[in-house]
Structure formats: C-alpha cells, structure tokens
Specification:
single chain; about 190 residues; two-stranded antiparallel sheet; globular
C-alpha cells in the first residue's frame, strides 16, 4: 500500500506571492542575459537604470506577468489569483515612488495590463503558427513598447529574446503545474 500525500492548502494571495517571486527571478534572469557588467548587449537596448519604474523594467515584468497569466488561464484558474498577482506588481512599483509620483501614475497603474496583454495574446497566436516570425514580432513589439517607437531588431537580439520567452514560459509552467499538483487553493 502506498502512502497518500496530503496536498497543502494555500490562499490565492500565497500562490500569487510565490508567482510574484518567479516574476522577479525571471526579471533578474533578463538583466543577466541582456546586460553585461551593467551595459546593454545591444545598441537597441536602453542603458541599465537603478530606478524601478523604467520602461524596460515595467515591460519585462508585464511580459513575465503575461506569460504566467496565460498559463493560469489555460489551467482554468479564476480571477482571484490573477488579481492578487497584479496587486503584487502594483505594490512593488508603487513602493519606490514618492506620494506625488504615485498620484501622477495612479490612473496609469490601475490597469497597465489590458492593452499589453491584448497585444501579446494576439502575437502569441502568431507564434504557434509561425514560431520564428511570431517571436520576432513579439520581440520587436516588446522593444517598441519599451522605447516608444516601432523598430526592427537585429537577429541576434531577436534570438536571445526568443530564448528568454521560451525559458520563462517553461519555468513558469513548471511552477504553476507543481503548485496545481501539490496544493489546493482554498479561496479560488
């Protein structure tokens, strides 16, 4: 007779906090892959900044959140976990702001996800039909969102970004699948 393993019981907030840690770890991976000794690996990337609220930081976190959100949605998770995860993002970025700056970004930060998610979900359907073209469009859209301009990336940077998206998806899927298998979300 086998030993039955009892599943852990966690809240949506605890699950989201764990996923937020994955988001932050993925961001550190991004920094390590795309900046050598603090310098960008490509002239298309903006210089590294210590400021939390930069277009690069914001967009990399939104990409990571989008990857995790798409996995959660595919696995049938309800809105509560997603809302908690988005609150982690908003809390993280608002901590580094002065009260005046927080007011300035209040409307901007309430729902920074809808427009970007729609962009990235639209592009993800192109990835499944034509991976190289889809990843190229995803990479150039992400960089366009960071820089505020449309641009065509060099093939080396597109390749590296494709590797990042693929590995980030794999890591996030592994974490979500592990929690799904070993834990019960008690307040879905």
């Amino acid at each position: 007779m086998g030993i039955l393993k009892k599943r852990s019981r966690i809240t949506s907030q605890q699950f989201a906090a764990g996923l937020w840690k994955v988001c932050k770890d993925l961001y550190l991976d991004w920094e390590g892959d795309f900046y050598e000794k603090g310098e960008p690996i490509s002239e298309e990337l903006p210089p590294k900044s210590e400021d939390r609220f930069t277009p690069v930081t914001r967009e990399v976190f939104i990409i990571n959140l989008w990857i995790i959100t798409s996995i959660l949605q595919e696995m049938g998770y309800k809105r509560k976990v997603l809302d908690q995860l988005h609150l982690c993002y908003l809390d993280f970025f608002s901590q580094s702001m002065s009260p005046e700056t927080r007011k300035q970004y209040a409307g901007y930060m309430e729902d920074p996800f809808k427009e970007r998610y729609e962009q990235y979900f639209d592009l993800s359907s192109k990835i499944s039909s034509s991976p190289s073209t889809g990843l190229e469009r995803l990479s150039s859209t992400m960089m366009g969102n960071i820089l505020g301009i449309k641009l065509c990336l060099n093939s080396h940077l597109t390749f590296l970004m494709g590797l990042y998206f693929t590995s980030a998806h794999k890591i996030a899927l592994e974490v979500v699948s592990n929690v799904d298998k070993n834990a019960e979300i008690i307040d879905k």
